[in-house]
Amino acid sequence: MAEQDVWEKKVVAYRRLFHQYPEPGWMTFFATILIAEHLEKAGFEVYVGREILNEEELMDPPTETEITLWEQRAVKLAEAQGISEEKVAVWMARMDHRTGVVAILDTKWKGKTKAFRFDMDALTVAESMDVDRVPVKEQFLSQNEGVSHACGHDGHMALGLAFAEYVAEQYSKYVKNVGEVPNQKSVQSMQDEIQSEVCGRYMFIFQPAEEGVRGAFAFRHQWNFGKIDELYCCHIGFAPEDTFVAGAKGFLATSKFDVIFTGKSAHAGLAPERGRNALLAAAKATMDMQAFPRPETGITRLNVGKLEAGEARNTIPAHAKMIVETRGEKGELNTYMKEQALSCIDQAAKTYGVTYEVRFQGESVSAASDEELSQNVLAVAKRTSVFSNYILTKNFGASDDGAVFMDMVEQQGGKAVYMLL
């Protein structure tokens, strides 16, 4: 129990640190440095930023100004955490303006490659100041205005980092035992025993830009770390209180895209006929997207989350922007919704004589946890007696780009589960 208390305290400390310094989207520079530094010291082979993503084009990337701001913050925070100025500079150079971590521990003993994926990014929302919230009571509120860990990713990073350090510590102990094996017992025999405990490769994936489902596709497109036999993902929340779900299913495929309409400005009083109204095109597209026929079976969703247009009261709007998402229970259902939405946009643009540009900003697929692996996870979880209730599976009912990793692993012949805590 004493050892358990030590690790619990470590997880709490990590989570509160990440909670105080949330970073959005692709700008998780501080978290990347801190995690990479800890895991390198623990004995992992560590890759960061552009070493993972190389030249992959990012969906909904930050501006150079945003990158500079968050990089400068990260450097100061990392040095405040005791990481030397020289080492911080090394990590920054290796990241090369990109974030994320892949850390690998190869035991050199034959076994499966087990990967554990954790998302890193915060939301661009102000933190609640409700006096009943623990961050308010314990004074570890977000120090970055307008950004907060409102979706639990601070907890995910804390769990992932502590667990990775724990695995490395256990491996180190086993290696030491092999070195101290008595003469009457062969090293090979000891290795056979160890192989049942710590073997194969352990891979920890810390992925930015989950919000908006932007990050996993970039990681998948540039994946260069070999086959994964078993993938474990998790999310705090999305389950009843004090309940553990071994393997979620029902992840909705989704597409996120922005549409920019460009028309022609004209005076609304003197010569409105000279204009081409981008606002009307966007409005027509929005209404038409609510009217096209839906498939008779399967869950589908479409939402225009934001519509902005126009310049002045007396001017025909020359510009309009809409932010759209589609979802589907299966990939083909989401594809149908996306294609229908794009058709509505095209027709509306033609009707009002405007042009348009579609910018895809996020993408994820449908997925379900492997039943056999979920059963194994459930059996292990029950032995801990941490939760009051244990469930084999539950519909997620939303989208998460962890599904992209799950699909990648399954396409390679591996198995994947997504736990809910």
Features:
421 residues; 6-stranded mixed beta sheet; 4-stranded antiparallel beta sheet; 13 helices; 40% helix; 19% strand
How many helical elements? 13
| Shape field | globular
**Helix residue percentage:** 40-55%
Assembly form of the protein: single chain
Spatial order of the strands forming the largest sheet: 1-2-4-3-5-12
Write down how many β-strands occur, each being a DSSP E stretch of 2 or more residues.
12
Q: Give the strand content.
A: 15-25%
Mean of the pLDDT scores?
93
Low-confidence stretches: 180-187
Main β-sheet, in a few words? 6 strands, mixed
| Alpha-carbon Rg, integer | 25 Å
Q: Which structural category do the helix and sheet elements fall into? A: alpha/beta
How far apart are the termini?
A: 22 Å
Following the backbone from N to C, one meets helices and strands in this order, namely HHEHHHEEHHHEHEEEHEEHEHEHE
Structural overview:
This protein is of the alpha/beta class and 421 residues long. The chain is 40% helix and 19% strand. The protein contains 13 helices and 12 strands. It has helices at residues 2-20, 29-42, 50-53, 64-80, 85-95, 134-137, 153-179, 187-195, 215-221, 278-289, 331-351, 371-384, 402-411; strands at residues 45-48, 101-106, 113-119, 201-207, 230-235, 243-245, 253-262, 300-309, 319-328, 355-364, 389-391, 415-420. Strands 1-2-4-3-5-12 form a 6-stranded mixed β-sheet, with helices on both faces. Helix 2 (29-42) packs across helix 4 (64-80) and helix 4 (64-80) packs antiparallel against helix 5 (85-95). It is globular, with a radius of gyration of 25 Å. The two termini are 22 Å apart. Residues 180-187 have low confidence and may be disordered.
